[in-house]
Design brief:
This protein is mostly beta strands. The chain has a domain at 21-43 and 81-177. It has 2 helices and 9 strands, in the order H-E-E-E-E-E-H-E-E-E-E. The protein has helices spanning 3-15, 88-100, and strands at 28-32, 42-46, 50-57, 65-74, 77-82, 117-124, 130-144, 160-166, 169-174. Strands 1, 2, 5, 6, 7, 8 and 9 form a 7-stranded antiparallel sheet that branches. It has a two-stranded antiparallel ribbon with strand order 3-4.
């Protein structure tokens, strides 16, 4: 008589997560393949969300029928990094952006291959071991923040800057898949 309840209990046990550790937000590395020195200075990465824009199907009544479209829109890949003293990492991104849109002549234009870079966000376990590799393809910078200098700062703080990237897509791979 209660056979269906027995199956519910078994299914509930199967649905329990095997890994009950939380994702550590401070355990990551970010590698921008074009600027490898950035890995040592990256402070913050915003892992982008995504949206599927619905299509509206006309209906004979007042409530339209919603359908998924065939397009995914990714949010931007944003990161904040410490600027090193000679501003080398900030200037690398600046020159990259200048090559995307030549200001004065075409000699500084980047080739098609140089315009893009893959980037990898490495997520770590709570024991600081690599767990997931999230690889963003065909990244290119669309904005680079300025650096604010101030003589009225009371505590010495390192200079920070932020970059916003567009990209084609990303893949998520577990370390065991490599």
């Amino acid at each position: 008589m209660y056979e269906h309840l027995k199956n519910l209990d078994i299914n509930a046990i199967r649905r329990q997560p095997k890994n009950q550790n939380y994702l550590q937000l401070n355990e990551f590395r970010f590698v921008l393949h074009r600027t490898p020195k950035m890995v040592y200075f990256c402070q913050q990465v915003y892992f982008p969300g995504l949206t599927v824009t619905p299509l509206v199907q006309p209906a004979p009544f007042s409530t339209p029928i919603m359908r998924p479209s065939n397009k995914i829109q990714y949010e931007n890949l944003d990161l904040t990094f410490l600027v090193n003293e000679d501003m080398e990492n900030w200037k690398e991104v600046r020159y990259w952006m200048q090559g995307l849109t030549p200001e004065k002549d075409f000699e500084r234009s980047l080739s098609e291959k140089e315009r893009y870079s893959d980037a990898t966000l490495i997520l770590m376990t709570n024991a600081s071991n690599p767990f997931f590799y999230i690889t963003f393809t065909n990244c290119f910078p669309v904005s680079l923040s300025g650096i604010q200098f101030s003589s009225s700062v009371e505590d010495i703080q390192p200079a920070k800057a932020s970059i916003r990237f567009e990209f084609s897509g990303y893949s998520i791979r577990h370390v065991k898949e490599f």
